[in-house]
Amino acid sequence: MEKIILTGDRPTGRLHLGHYVGSLKRRVELQNSGEYDKIFIMIADAQALTDNADNPEKVRQNIVEVALDYRSVGLDPEKSTLFIQSMVPELTELTFYYANLVTVSRLQRNPTVKSEIQMRNFETSIPVGFFTYPISQAADITAFKATTVPVGEDQMPMLEQCQEIVRKFNSVYGEALVEPKILLPSNSACLRLPGTDGKAKMSKSLGNCIYLSDSADAVKEAIMKRMYTDPLHINVADPGHIEGNMVFTYLDAFSNQAQLEAYLPGYANLDEVKEHYKRGGLGDVKLKRFLINVLEDELAPIRARRAEYEKDIPAVYDILKKGTEAAHEVAAKTLSEVKAAMKINYFDDVELIKAQSEKYQRN
Ligand code: TRP
Q1: How far is the CA of 44 from the centre of ligand 1 (A)?
Q2: Cβ-contact 177, 340 below 8 angstroms
Q3: How confident is the model over 286-296, as pLDDT tens digits?
Q4: How many angstroms separate the alpha carbon of residue 10 from the centre of ligand 1?
C-alpha cells in the first residue's frame, strides 16, 4: 500500500512556534525522508470559514501568510502538494455523504468540538458548519487515501472521528476508504507548546505567540518582557521552580546539546541547568538569553527564506494553483469510487441500465 500524508492548517493567522514544534517541523522531516509516496498539505480555508463566516477577508489574507510560512520552513512543492481546500469541491461532496454516517450525539461528544464550543461561548448557537467540521476533516483525509496524518495532540479526537467514519463507510458500502493513523510529535515537550504567558495554548487572541515571521527584536521582546518564569524567583540566589516555567518548557522543546555548549557553557546537560536553577544562583536573564540564541538558530533561516519568497508573491499563488489542480484530480478519483460504492453512479453503471431495461421489458 502507498504511504500517503495529508495534513493542513486553518488560515486564520500567521503560523507560530506552537504550529512549528507541533507539526511543521516534523512535516518537513517527513517530506525529506523520502519514505512517503505522496504528501498533501492543505490550507483549510473552508474549515476556517466555519467559525469566521463573517470575516472572509481575514481568511483570504491569511492564505498567502500560511503559504509563505510553509515555503519558509522548507515545504517544497517538488515534494509536497500544497493546495487550497475550498478549491477542491469534491471535499464538500464527500462531507455531505459522510454526514449520514455520524450522529449529533457523537459530534457533541467530540472533545475538540466540545471545548471549542465552551471557549467561544457558542452553546447551541454554534454554526452547523462548525459543529460538523470533524466530518469535513474526515473528507479531507480520506479523499487523498491518507495513511498518515501528522498533527498536534489536539487533533486526536478528529482522527478518531475520521477512523470511525471510515469503518462505518467500509462496512456499509464496501471497502472504498483507507483508515488513517495519527502521527504525533515525538518530543513530549512539543505535544502542546504553551504560550509565552504559560497559558495552555499559543493563540493570537491571548497575545502569547511567537510567530515564525516575527523579527529578531520581536522574539527578543516576547522572551525578555513577556515570558512567564517563576514569580517566586525574585533574586538570583532564590531557589527556582521548573514546572510551569516557560523558559524551561521552551528549552525542552527547542534546545540541543551543541547549543547548550555554545551558549551556556559549564553544564553537562539541561538537567544540570535545571538543578542549578532549583538550588538558586541562576538568573532568569541568563537563561532567557540562552533561549533567545536557541530560537534564533531556528528562526533566522526561516525568516531569511521568507524575505526571499515575499519578493515574488505571484509565484506563491502559482504553486498553490498547481497543487490545487493536482489535489483536485486525486480527490475526484476517490469521489467516483465512493459514489460507485454507494451505488449513486447511475450513468456510469452499464449493468444498472441493462437490468432496469430488462425489468421494464418483462411483460
Ligand atoms: N483542523 C486542523 C487545524 O485546525 C486543520 C485541518 C483541516 C486538518 N483538515 C485537516 C489537519 C485534515 C489534518 C487533516 O489545524
Answers
A1: 7
A2: no
A3: 999 999 999 99
A4: 7
